[in-house]
């Protein structure tokens, strides 16, 4: 099964990222790699409907995201926002709407306000705006992304 193979590769990459962090906790890029890996794991689990594993991975991603202090503070903030969004998605899968809405509200609050955004960050903002019930803003951003030819890989 291709999904199982992809997930095995992802887990292998996450194991490597964790070993790098264990080797030297001072390298912020390795923490960012670990955060992104855990977020991808949570996203994969959300996509397959595995709420429990998604919740565990998103919680870990959030814990790591909070510790990342790189030279790109905007990207760091997006890491936190994405982890909160995935935490909300996991709670939604598990039927806990209140916890999901709380996590999405925190995701929105974590979004940076004055950064130049990469297209993938604009896409994350659009997803978070949608989850947080700010559909008008989300729709405007989605139109801008479409106009620039951006194709989302995660929603």
Strand proportion: under 5%
- The structure class reads mainly alpha
* Pattern of helices and strands: HHHHHHH
Q: How is the biggest beta sheet arranged?
A: none
The radius of gyration computed from the alpha-carbon positions, rounded to a whole number of angstroms, is 15 Å
User: Helicity range of the residues?
Assistant: over 70%
Key phrases:
globular; 78% helix; 155 residues; mainly alpha; 7 helices
Secondary-structure topology with pairs:
Elements: H1 2-23, H2 28-48, H3 51-67, H4 73-93, H5 97-110, H6 119-131, H7 135-147
Explain this structure.
- It is built from 7 helices and no strands.
- The model has no long low-confidence stretch (mean pLDDT 90).
- With 155 residues, it is an all-alpha fold.
- The two termini are 23 Å apart.
In brief, what are we looking at here?
By secondary structure, the chain is mainly α. The protein is 78% helix and 0% strand. It has helices at residues 2-23, 28-48, 51-67, 73-93, 97-110, 119-131, 135-147.
């Amino acid at each position: 099964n291709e999904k199982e193979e992809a997930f095995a590769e992802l887990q292998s990459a996450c194991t490597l990222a964790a070993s790098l962090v264990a080797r030297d906790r001072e390298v912020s890029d390795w923490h960012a790699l670990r955060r992104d890996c855990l977020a991808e794991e949570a996203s994969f689990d959300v996509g397959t409907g595995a709420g429990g594993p998604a919740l565990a991975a998103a919680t870990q991603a959030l814990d790591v995201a909070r510790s990342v202090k790189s030279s790109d503070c905007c990207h760091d903030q997006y890491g936190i926002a994405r982890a909160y969004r995935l935490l909300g998605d996991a709670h939604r899968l598990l039927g806990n709407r209140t916890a999901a809405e709380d996590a999405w509200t925190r995701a929105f609050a974590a979004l940076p306000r004055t950064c130049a955004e990469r297209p993938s960050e604009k896409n994350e903002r659009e997803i978070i705006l949608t989850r947080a019930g700010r559909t008008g803003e989300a729709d405007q951003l989605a139109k801008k992304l479409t106009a620039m030819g951006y194709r989302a890989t995660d929603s």
